[in-house]
Amino acid sequence: METKEIIKTPAAVEVTTEAAEQKAKIYIEKKPIYSACKRIFDVLCSFLGLVVLAIPFLVISIIISIDSPGASPIYVQLRHGKNGKVFKFYKFRSMVPHAEAMLDTLLDQNEMEGPAFKLKDDPRITKFGHFIRRTSIDELPQLWNVLKGDMSLVGPRPPLPREVEMYDDYQRQRLSVTPGLTCYWQIQPSRNSLTFDEWLDLDLKYISDRSFGTDLKILFKTVGAVFGMEGE
């Protein structure tokens, strides 16, 4: 069979290059008034949430201490926020102590393509950890991150440093806004089956679409996802 060589003309090369550049960048509007009002909303809601949930937080912490003796009920990680700034990220412990040290032995079982790690039957998750992940209760301590300004109620989820190290310029655009407790990805009906590229596209869609209307819609749908126990 004769093989035909495909030769790109200068015009074709120019079109290809232009398409690549268009994929590499999205238009990110600054929206200063929206950002200032959103920050006020974040502070009020996170402060109220921390006050109302103080006793439930105490109960959850006691259960975690019983489930994982000797380990702190609050797990602290380093995450990347807006413009790549590193901050301390808080969540209720859902994994056994030294879970991070066990990660290297599980990387070859990763079910998520790209930089993120996802394993449905992760052996590091405790019994109570499965419950608080399904209900997204494990994420509630991030209300403190929201109050501090590291995070917002709505925005792309903050990635781990090892994930960011693998980002290309296109993927780094998800770091252009303040990360959030919830986002488009978390309200998808089958969110755990999404690929990393689909997750990324949803984050970039949020960055382009962000507004009070969009934020309220995501928050409302997040409540339904929580009661539907669509976590993990």
Secondary structure blueprint with pairings:
Layout: H1 10-24, H2 32-52, H3 54-67, E1 74-80, E2 86-92, H4 99-102, H5 127-134, H6 142-148, E3 152-154, H7 161-164, E4 180-182, H8 196-209, H9 212-227
Parallel strand pairs: 3-4
Antiparallel strand pairs: 1-2
Helix pairs in contact: 2-6
Describe this structure in words.
The protein has 232 residues and is mainly α. It has one domain (31-225). It has 9 helices and 4 strands; from the N terminus they run H-H-H-E-E-H-H-H-E-H-E-H-H. It has a two-stranded antiparallel sheet. It has a two-stranded parallel sheet with strand order 3-4. Strand 1 and strand 2 form a beta hairpin. Helix 2 packs across helix 6 (142-148). The longest helix has 21 residues, at 32-52. Mean pLDDT is 85; it is low at 1-22.
Gross morphology: globular
* Largest sheet entry: 2 strands, antiparallel
CA-CA gap between termini: 51 Å
Helix proportion: 40-55%
SS element count, helices: 9
Spell the H/E element sequence: HHHEEHHHEHEHH
